Amino acid sequence: MSSVVAVPELIASAATELTSIGSAVNAANAIAAPATADILAAGADEVSAAIAALFARHALGYQTLGAQAQAFHVQFVDALTAGAASYAGAEAAAATALGPLNDLLNLINLPTLLLLGRPLIGNGTSGAAGTGADGGAGGLLFGNGGSGGSGGGAHPAGGRGGAAGLFGNGGAGGAGAAGAVGGTGGNGGWLFGNGGAGGAGGDAPAGIGGLGGAGGQAILLGAGGIGGAGGLGAGGGGNGGAGGWGGLLAGNGGAGGAGGMATTAGNGGVGGAGGGAWLIGDGGAGGLGAAATAPAATGGLGGTGGGGGTGGLLFGNGGIGGAGGAGAAGGTAGTGGFGGDAGLFGAGGAGGVGGTGGGHFGETGGAGGNGGAGGVIFGNGGAGGAGGDALAQAVGAGGAGGPGGNGGAARLFGDGGTGGMGGDGGRADGAGDSGGAGARGGRGGAGGYLFGSGAAGGRGGAGGVAANGSGGAGGAGGDGGSTTLIGDGGNGGSGGPGGTGTPAGAVGVGGSGGVGGLLFGSNGTAG
What we know:
Blueprint: H1 8-37, H2 46-116, E1 428-431, E2 466-468
Parallel strand pairs: 1-2
């Protein structure tokens, strides 16, 4: 079913403008008609007479078309004006018809408003902007919570989102003023409803950005709210807010908020942790760690990625870890967040990717996050996050790549998670400077105790290229994961290639293969 939204005032305004345009075109045609219709021949010869007659016929044809266009224009404007009047009449009739219904709703809500200060049915009121006021609660039976007001003046923190009643979603938290924390999202309905999103932390032109507000919680059925993003700050970014937890019976955790970027100096904000699930549902993803890579920023650390939330106790996958933020010039890159663990049944979350190195004094890339463990009864482990690469250096040796994260282990039944790839070493362009070393790959996760194969180790990172020096050595491959009773061991990761240079860098050593099961299974091959 399609819907049409019409604003009568805008339609009437368009009709008025079209009328003005039509009048201007008609006036121009009237001025041009005498000069173009009665064209005198340039001479008494036949050619001049024929040319004059040709132009006269074209002019008459144009005037005929202009008259037809004018008639169509009048019809179109009349239809548009009539349509605007029709929409306005329908709107007025609808408002009149809804009057008794609104009166009935007010009558229904009156007892609970008088006794509890809260309606039975209806959405809560939103806090005014710039006041930091909390959002109003939704109706006891049905209704969403109101949004919190943004911070300002004597109340710089963002207002909390209003809670829902039996059915409904929580209100979003308000954004913080400069450098202030965002408001917490409101809780979802007691029976069904999602938690509200956390408010964003306030940007700080001369300080540290505000913290993002936490996402609201779901109560019985529903998803947790997303955490608010951290504010940008000249002296460092604010941390992202944590995601809200899912409902007690079913519902996914909310994702963590991203950290705020450092705009002049200081560290990037840490990503918020993903919310967990209680009985059935997936854990929320961890928030992204913020970069400290603004052009003027120096020495700042990239923010660590937030950890993924835990999967539901009965069934649910762990949340993926957030990526680490890039370091500023002279600063260390952020590490990737760890993947969340699963409950009884489900896969572990993948680890987050490490951030890119700062690229000023040969800083290393950030380490990848480890993968989460698989379900206690059944489920695969999460993959490890890849390590971050180091940036190229105009002067000085290239930085080393970040190590890959280890794969998560399975528990009873399931395969381990693959190890993350090592980050590549940084390029060196200066005379006599060496390329950076590639990082080792992550170890493969172990297979399930009763049944399951170990995972392959991650490939080692490539050594950095050197334009006028020795190339960087390739990183070692990660070892393959082993298993216990039944299953194959994982293969070792291959060593990373050495960087080109004079001389070229050495190739990395491959990882060892994992041990196969005691009852049945083959050992993994070396990388």
